[in-house]
Amino acid sequence: MSAPSVPFIRQTAGASAARAANRSRGYGSERRPGWVTYLFLTLAIVVFVSPIYYAFLLASSDSATIAQNPIPSLIPGGNFLANVNEVLSANINFWKALTNSIIVAVTTSASVVLFSTLAGFSFAKLRFRGRNGLLLFVIATTAVPTQLGIVPLFIVMAELGWLSKLVAVIVPGLVTAFGVFWMTQYLESALPYELIEAARVDGASMIRTFWSIALPAARPAAIMLGLFAFVGSWTNFFWPFIVLGSSNPTLPVALQLLQASYFKDMSLIMAGVVLSAIPLLLLFVVAGRQLVAGIMAGAVKG
Amino acid sequence: MATSTTQPRAGRRLPDSPRDPRRVGFSQTLGRWDVKVSPYLYISPFFILFALTGLFPLAYTAYVSVYDWHLLGGQGDFVGFDNFAFVFQEPNFWKGLRNTFSIFLLSTIPQLMIAIVLAALLDANLRARTFWRMGVLVPYVVAPVAVSLIFGKVFADQSGLANAVLGFFGVDPIKWHGAVLPSHFAVATMVNFRWTGYNTLILLAAMQAVPRELYEAAVIDGATRVRQFFSITIPQIRPTLIFVVITSTIGGLQIFDEPRMFDQLGQGGPGRQWMTVTMYIYELGFGNSKSFGRAAAVAWVLFLIILAVGMLNFWLTRRIASESTPKEPRRKKVKR
C-alpha cells in the first residue's frame, strides 16, 4: 500500500498528523531518537500485549496444569481447540451470543454513522435558527452520565415488552453526541459550500444533496466513527447485562455466564475470552491505523 | 447562505410563461419547506433519542427515588426521602462510595502520568511510527469484561501470576481479592491496562500540535529536555489534559464491568471490599431486594457526586496546569 499524500493526511487525520508525516518523510530535519526511547516503548508494548498472550496460554492449557502453576508454559499448549469446542457446546449458547453481538454492533454502527453524518451535515453546512445553541447542547450532553438512568430505562423497556430483546440494546445506541460532534467538525472543513450550491442549483432536494454530496465527502471520518461505534458496542456490558439477561446474551454477557458456571476451570473461561476477543483483534489488524488516526484527530479538534 | 441562493424565485414574475404557474408555485413552496425544515429534521434523531433514553430516564430517576417501587410489583406508595434515609444508614453504601473513589484515584492518577510519559516518548521522529502507536492501543479492543477475567486470574489469591512473581522476589503473597486496598489496586490495574494507550494517543496528538518554535527557543535559552517538558509541553497541552481528566471522571465514577467480573459472585467480595456504587445500584434494583426506589435514590446521589467532582476537577486541573506557566514570560523574552 502506498503512503497517503500529506494533504490527504491533513484532511483525514488533522494538521498535527500531517506535520508528523512531513517530518517522517525527511522534509523536516528533526533527528531520530536514541535506542533508550525504543527500549521503553518496547517495554510498554510488551506490558500491553502480554495479558492477551497470557489469556491465550491459559486457554490452550487445562485446569489441572493451571492449578499447579500460574504460568503453564510460555509456549501455548495443545488444548486450545478442545477448550473452544467445549465452550461452544456448553449450555451458554456462545454461537447465539456471537450472532447477537454481530447484529447489535453492525446495526448500531451503521445507524450511528448515518444519523451522525445527517446531523453533522446540518450543523456544519446548513443555516437555521438556534444552530449554535443546539450544537453546544449536543456537546454538553457528552458530560451527562446517562448510565445512571437505568432504572427508568428498564421500566420503559418492560412497558414496551422489549426485555431480553436485542432491540432494547440497539435503540439507545442509535446515535451518539460524540458522533454528531465528530461529523460536524469533519464536514465543516471537508465539504466545500460550492459543491452543495451546485447540487442545489441543479435542483437536488436537501436529502438528495446529503446523499450524493455530503455522504461521499464524509467517508473517511464516517469509517472511523463506524469503527469506534463498533468497538463500543462489541465491548458494552452493563446495559445488555441488565436488559438481556441469560436467555439472549451478547458476547460480554455470555462471558459473565461462562464465568459463573465454569469458574473452576480457568482454561475454559480463557478460551471464551480469547474467542470473544478474536473478531476485534482481527479488526484491529485491518483497521488499527484508522483507530489511531481517529483518536488523534478527535483530540486535536475536541 | 448556501441554500438561500438556490431558490428559483423568477417563476412567479413570469405569469405569461408557457409553464403551469400553479405547479411552479407548489414546487416552490415545497422547496422552501425543504430548506426550512430539513436542518431540524436531520438533527432531530439525536435530540429525540437523547430525550427518550438519556434525559427522561435521568429525570424520572428522581421521581422513582421518592416512591416505594418494586422491580416486579411496580410503583407503590409515596415515601418521601425514606429511600435516601435507608441507603445513607447502610454501611454498604458508604463502602461503595469509598471503593469507587479509591479505585478512581488509583486508576486515573497513575494512568495519566504513564500516558504523558508514553506520549512524550512517542512524540519523536520514530522509525515505524504507526507500529508503536498501534501497539499502545491494542488493549482498547479487548472488552472490559474480558480484561477483568484475565486480571482476575493474574491477581488470584492462590496460584496467581502476580503472587508467583512476587514470590520469586521473596515477597509474601498478597490477598488481592481478600484485602481492601490490594483489590482496589487490581481493579485499577484493569482500567489502566485498557485506557492508558488510548489517552496516550490523545495526549500525543496534543503534543504534536505544540509549535516547534517554542522548543527551539528553549534550546537556545539552554533549557534541558526535562525543563522543556515541564515548562512548555505540560502548559501547552492543558486543554487536552482537562478534557482527559473530565472524561475519565465521568466514566471512572460509574465503573461497573471490571469490579463486577473480578470474581464469579459479582458482589464485590464477601466484605464488599471492591463493590462500587454502580454495583450497589445494580444490587439494590436487580438483586435480592429488587427495590427500584432505593436503586434510583443511589443513582441520583451518584449523579450529583459526578457533577460535583467534574466541576472540582475542572477547577483543579486548570489551577495545576496554570501553576506551571510562570516561566512563560521568559520564553517570550527569548523570542524577542
TrEMBL record, chain A:
Membrane topology term reads: Multi-pass membrane protein
Q: Which InterPro entries match?
A: MetI-like, MetI-like_sf
According to the lineage, what is the superkingdom? Answer: Bacteria
The yes or no answer to whether the keyword Membrane is present is yes
PANTHER family linked to this entry: ABC TRANSPORTER PERMEASE PROTEIN MG189-RELATED (PTHR43744:SF12), ABC TRANSPORTER PERMEASE PROTEIN MG189-RELATED-RELATED (PTHR43744)
Q: Which family does the entry's similarity section mention?
A: Belongs to the binding-protein-dependent transport system permease family.
What is the recorded name of this protein?
Sugar ABC transporter permease
UniProtKB/TrEMBL annotation, chain B:
Question: Is the keyword Transmembrane helix in the record?
Answer: yes
UniProt main location, coarse: membrane
Indicate where this protein resides in the cell.
Answer: Cell membrane
Segments spanning the bilayer are 40-63, 101-122, 134-156, 176-195, 237-256, 297-316
Any matching Pfam family: BPD_transp_1
Sorted keywords for this record are: Cell membrane, Membrane, Transmembrane, Transmembrane helix, Transport
As for membrane topology, the entry says: Multi-pass membrane protein
Question: For the ABC transmembrane type-1 domain, which residue ranges apply?
Answer: 97-313
| Family to which this protein belongs | Belongs to the binding-protein-dependent transport system permease family.
Q: What is this protein called?
A: Sugar ABC transporter permease
